[in-house]
């Protein structure tokens, strides 16, 4: 895991990398406090412990659980707003083609006003510095599980200062990769029925910093979503069925990572309000009977070209573009 085909020592242009580079970038973020810096360092330095606690697989989490449950009823009785993990850490479902484009960006991008795309109160900026700096990291959610899905190195850290920060603290669990390698990881994971999420976090300067390839059994965010904490935003698309092409093989219902497709009278029925628009069913349908269409009531796609151009809405995605 330690081989490097990417930058070492600096993040490019002679700028410091790793923790020093991250903290220098934090100086440019308005309102990023010393507590935020500490949070960022803990998250970056002890990522695997942090996530293992978060997904409930560490003994500390089992100790904290009764305390949280004891406090929660009192907060509800006092009618206080209930903060959730999703306030500062969340993902946006992205179709495979969008994920490919994000690892193929070669120019800096700054989009700081994404509340319509990323409907969360804290982390929703997309600022890409040196986006060709890509790192494959062993998935903290998978490694926390007793019997994880494999392969493990499927989390893609995108751009600086995040890529160098991760490599500094996890040299044995991360490796520099090229955009071509990143695409191959995305495509292989999508064929396995796993979902691409663009992840944002408050401690990561309030920005997009990684594309994770998530399986329903290991992913902490998908686990939280099923438990009622809305950590994931829809892609802005939904799956629709062209009935004449369907052979009722049930492949889509079995593959859907969100459980959004049921078989009714021998036909798959995608549930519009449950479908997250990941496109897994479209890819795995053997007859091409499913495709994605825009679903503006579910959100706006994280499509860089559309966002930067200020255009209203993308065209439907055909199976060939997923």
Secondary-structure blueprint:
Blueprint: H1 18-26, H2 34-45, H3 47-54, H4 59-77, E1 89-93, H5 96-102, E2 109-111, E3 126-137, H6 140-144, E4 155-160, H7 162-169, E5 174-177, H8 179-191, E6 195-201, E7 207-214, H9 220-226, E8 232-233, E9 237-241, H10 251-255, E10 261-264, E11 267-270, H11 280-284, E12 290-294, H12 304-309
Parallel strand pairs: 1-8
Antiparallel strand pairs: 1-6, 2-3, 3-4, 3-5, 4-7, 6-7, 9-12, 10-11
**Percent range for β-strand residues:** 15-25%
Q: Largest sheet, if any? A: 8 strands, mixed
N- to C-terminal separation?
Answer: 29 Å
Overall number of structural domains: 2
Overall spatial form:
globular
Q: Tally the beta strands.
A: 12
Average the pLDDT over all residues and give the rounded result: 87
Give the number of helices.
Answer: 12
The helix fraction, in percent, is 25-40%
Provide the low-confidence segments as ranges.
Answer: 1-5, 74-80
Return Rg in Å: 20 Å
Order of helices and strands: HHHHEHEEHEHEHEEHEEHEEHEH
The assigned structural class equals: alpha+beta
Describe the protein:
- With 322 residues, this protein is an alpha+beta fold.
- It has 2 domains: 16-233, no CATH class; 234-322, Alpha-Beta Plaits.
- The chain is 32% helix and 20% strand.
- It has helices at 18-26, 34-45, 47-54, 59-77, 96-102, 140-144, 162-169, 179-191, 220-226, 251-255, 280-284, 304-309, and strands at residues 89-93, 109-111, 126-137, 155-160, 174-177, 195-201, 207-214, 232-233, 237-241, 261-264, 267-270, 290-294.
- Strands 1, 2, 3, 4, 5, 6, 7 and 8 form an 8-stranded mixed beta sheet that branches.
- A hairpin with a 5-residue loop joins strand 6 (195-201) and strand 7.
- Helix 1 (18-26) packs antiparallel against helix 7 (162-169).
- The radius of gyration is 20 Å and the shape is globular.
């Amino acid at each position: 895991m330690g081989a490097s085909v990417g930058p070492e020592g600096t993040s490019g242009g002679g700028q410091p990398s790793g923790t020093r580079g991250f903290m220098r970038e934090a100086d440019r973020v308005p309102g990023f406090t010393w507590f935020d810096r500490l949070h960022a360092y803990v998250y970056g330095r002890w990522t695997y412990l942090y996530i293992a606690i978060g997904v409930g697989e560490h003994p500390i989490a089992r100790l904290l659980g009764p305390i949280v449950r004891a406090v929660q009823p009192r907060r509800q009785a006092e009618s206080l707003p209930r903060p959730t993990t999703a306030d500062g850490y969340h993902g946006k479902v992205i179709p495979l083609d969008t994920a490919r484009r994000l690892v193929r960006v070669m120019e800096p991008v700054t989009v700081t006003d994404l509340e319509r795309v990323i409907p969360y109160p804290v982390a929703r900026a997309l600022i890409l510095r040196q986006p060709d700096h890509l790192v494959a990291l062993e998935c903290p959610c998978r490694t926390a599980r007793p019997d994880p899905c494999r392969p493990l190195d499927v989390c893609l850290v995108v751009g600086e200062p995040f890529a160098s920060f991760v490599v500094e603290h996890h040299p044995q669990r991360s490796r520099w990769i090229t955009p071509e390698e990143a695409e191959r990881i995305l495509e292989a994971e999508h064929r396995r029925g796993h979902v691409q999420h663009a992840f944002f976090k408050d401690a990561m300067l309030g920005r997009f910093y990684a594309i994770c390839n998530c399986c329903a059994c290991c992913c902490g965010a998908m686990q939280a979503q099923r438990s009622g904490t809305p950590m994931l935003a829809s892609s802005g698309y939904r799956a629709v069925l062209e009935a004449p092409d369907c052979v009722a093989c049930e492949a889509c219902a079995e593959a859907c990572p969100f459980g959004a497709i049921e078989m009714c009278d021998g036909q798959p029925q995608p549930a519009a309000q449950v479908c997250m628009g990941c496109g897994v069913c479209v890819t795995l349908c053997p007859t091409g009977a499913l495709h994605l269409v825009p679903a503006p009531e579910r959100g706006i796609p994280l499509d860089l070209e559309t966002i930067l151009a200020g255009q209203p809405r993308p065209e439907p995605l055909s199976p060939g573009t997923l």
